[in-house]
Amino acid sequence: MTIKDLEKSFVCLNSSGTGRSISNIYCCDLASNTLGKIKPDSVWITVIPSENTIAAAVAADIPAVIISENNTPPQSVIQDAKKYDVSLFLSELPTYETALKIPL
User: Fold this and answer.
1) If phi over 0 gives left and psi between -120 and 50 gives alpha, with beta otherwise, what is residue 53?
2) Do strands 87-90 and 11-14 pair parallel, antiparallel, or not at all (unpaired)?
3) Which pLDDT belongs to residue 6?
4) Which domain holds residue 49?
């Protein structure tokens, strides 16, 4: 699947690199844990809508982040996602149910 496919299931707050492939899902709320364990070409699902989330996604070369539980990020986070070409999505569902909506 591609990042563009995520736009069908989630609210898109920033779309970048829409042709990039997604081959794995990683669910975690700790950026430090994510940095050590997430696989390339994963979509990261977290409840934490912060600048650190975007920074960790950039450091780990993660193309897309989904913020779950309708935790709408502040404008500064959306701006960081745009600046660093990270696709950013919002889901009203809890993390587990959000992951289930992603057809890999």
Assistant:
1) alpha
2) antiparallel
3) 93
4) 3-100
